[in-house]
Structures are given as structure tokens and as C-alpha cells.
Specification:
Distance between the termini: 23 Å
Shape: elongated
Helix content: 55-70%
Number of strands: 0
């Protein structure tokens, strides 16, 4: 049976993934040039989407962690650390 924590983790993962994709698409559609340098990373910095991308990735990783801990509750990854 699927628990509420699993659903919450899946929603966090989906939200993080959605905002990650949106920030990549926005940066790719709005090219930017800083000191003659171009590219996706420069576009992310120029459009200030790197902050949204960073937050979205943290949210997505947290959601994946919650889903993993709910799916495998007795799994210990780093010895005695829970």
C-alpha cells in the first residue's frame, strides 16, 4: 500500500523535475553572452535561472530520498547512520 509520505515524496520529485526542466528551457530560449562567453551555463547565470535550478534540484533530491526511505525502510546506506 502506498503511504502518504510516498505520495509526498513523489510530488516533491515531480515538482523539482518540472522546475528544473522549465529553468533549462527558459535559459536555452534566452541566449546570453558574458564577456564573450556563451552557452547554457552562461545563459543560466545571465537570466538568473541558476538559483531556481539549484533549489529545484535540492527539492527533487529530497523527494527521491523520501521515496527511497519509504520504499526500503530497513535499508542502511552508511553503516549505523539513519
Amino acid at each position: 500500500m502506498v503511504s502518504n509520505k510516498m505520495i509526498f515524496g513523489a510530488l516533491l520529485t515531480l515538482t523539482g523535475l518540472t522546475f528544473s526542466v522549465l529553468s533549462f528551457v527558459y535559459a536555452a530560449m534566452h541566449p546570453w553572452s558574458i564577456d564573450g562567453k556563451e552557452g547554457l551555463l552562461v545563459s543560466l547565470m545571465g537570466t538568473n535561472m541558476w538559483l531556481l535550478l539549484s533549489i529545484a534540484l535540492v527539492i527533487m533530491i529530497a523527494g527521491l530520498w523520501i521515496c527511497f526511505k519509504e520504499a526500503y525502510p530497513n535499508t542502511k546506506i552508511w553503516g549505523n547512520i539513519e
